[in-house]
Amino acid sequence: MGRGLAALAIVGSVAVGCVCGVVGARYAIAHRMEASGEQLNGWRVNFNLGRFGSDLLLRAAVARYGMGANEAEESVYYSAPTDFDKRPLDGRSNYVLHFDKGALPPVGAFWSVSVVSADDLFFVENSIARYGIGDRTKGLTRNPDGSLDIRIQHDEPAEGQANWLPAPAGGFVIIMRAYEPKAEILTRKWAPPPVKRADTLA
To answer: What is the CATH number of the domain that holds 167?
Structure first.
């Protein structure tokens, strides 16, 4: 009986140690990902994701959240889990991503804006099966001054579907991808416009 209890205690200790190790590793990975980036206009971006070097924790973080990443000269990824006022994005509010005329992402290939669930970073099904808007999206409507508004919300906007990027009913994250970014992006002279709630716009 004594040996059985001792063995059980050992197994329990190992199990507790494993759980603590997993929790600690997840925290370290999440912290490394957050610490490695920088903030631009309310967006989080990391220009070194594809250059791990000997930084194994950063490599683990990239594998955990993105399953790999290109070097910045190939693509740059911006993420916005909150609006410009640092409020978590939520389908109960409507948002606008406004690009001034001539201020779309400067890229050699293409750019896109997507919405993913805040819970698992996966796409969420929507009524029009649209999971991104970008320079390859047909039918986008420009404002009279040549600017572009992308409307990010759960319900179809009053303006119609043309510039609508559907969002889930709950929390979500906006992801912007810039492929073959030009020098303006790599030198931080260009940054995505802030994500603003529609009810805060004049």
So the answer is: 2.60.120.600
Using DSSP, state whether 18 is helix, strand or coil.
helix
Tokens 């996966």 sit on residue: 122
Residues of the chain with pLDDT under 50: none
CA distance 173 to 88: 9
| 59 belongs to a structural domain | no
Domain limits for position 83: 71-200
Rounded to the nearest 10 degrees, what angle do helices 56-65 and 2-36 cross at?
Answer: 90
Q: Is residue 118 part of a domain?
A: yes
Report which residue type is found at 138: K
pTM of the predicted structure, to 2 decimals: 0.79
| Number of domains into which the chain is organized | 1
The tens digit of pLDDT for each residue in 92-144 reads: 999 999 999 999 999 999 999 999 999 988 999 999 999 999 999 999 999 99
